[in-house]
Amino acid sequence: MAAAAVSAADSADPAVATSTCAHCNREIPSPNIALHSAHCARNLHLKCEHCGDMVPRKHMDKHYEDNHAPVNCPRCKQTVEHELWDLHKRLQCPQRMLACQYCKFELPAADIFEHQDVCGNQTKYCQPCNKDIRLREWIGHELLLHSKTNVTPESSSDRSMLEKEEGACHEQVRPVFGLTYKQLLLTIAIAGLAVLIGSILFQRRIGSSEA
C-alpha cells in the first residue's frame, strides 16, 4: 500500500515543479520528494562511487569491503589498492616466495637474487668430462656437449664410451670460427706450408732474373 502510494507520488505531472532525488537521481514532484526520498533511502539501490554499480543500500558496506577497500598485505605489510592486489601478490610483493632455479629452495623475492649468485657458483661433477661444472653453467654445458648422451660408467663398455665422449668433449671446447682443435692445427700447418713454398719460388725467380 505504501509502495503504491510512493509510486503514485512519483508520477510527475508536467505542470508541477520537480526535484531530483539524491538517492536515485530521478525527477520527483516537489510536493512528494520527502516521502519518495524516505522510501528510496530504505529500499532502493545506491550507485557505488567507485565502480558505478547499483547496489542495495544494505549491502553497500559489504560491496565496498569486497571490491574496493585497500588490502593490507600480510607478507610485506604494505597497503595495496584493491584493484592491484592480484598483481602485487603475484609479481610485486618483495616477500612473495620464489624457488631458486638451482636448488629449488624457496626464499622471499627480496633475497632470491643474492642466494642464486651464491648457489649458482656451486659445482656439480660432470662424469663424461671428468671435471666440476658450475651450476649456473650446467644447462648450457649439457646442451653443448651432452645433449644426446650423458653416460654414467657402470661397466667396461660404459667406460669405453666415456673415454670416447671425453675425447670428443676436449675437441669441442673452445671452437674457433667453427673449427675443432685438430682442424685448427691442420689449417695452420697447411697455411705455413703454403707460405714456405711461396717463399722458395720467389727466391728462385729472383735468382733467375739476376743471372
Explain what you see.
By secondary structure, the protein is an alpha+beta fold. The chain has three domains: 2-67, no CATH class; 71-118, Zinc/RING finger domain, C3HC4 (zinc finger) (Herpes Virus-1); 120-172, no CATH class. Helices cover 50% and strands 14% of the residues. The chain has eight helices and ten strands. The protein has helices at 2-10, 33-43, 60-67, 85-92, 109-119, 135-145, 156-172, 181-210, and strands at 18-20, 27-29, 45-47, 54-56, 71-72, 79-80, 97-99, 106-108, 123-126, 131-134. The strands form five sheets. A two-stranded antiparallel ribbon has the order 1-2. A hairpin with a 6-residue loop joins strand 1 (18-20) and strand 2. Helix 1 packs across helix 2. The model is unreliable at 1-9, 150-156 and 168-179 (pLDDT under 50). The chain crosses the membrane at residues 184-202. InterPro entries: Innate_Immune_Apopt_Reg (IPR051986), Znf_RING/FYVE/PHD (IPR013083). This is TRAF-type domain-containing protein. Keywords: Membrane, Transmembrane, Transmembrane helix. It comes from Hordeum vulgare subsp. vulgare.
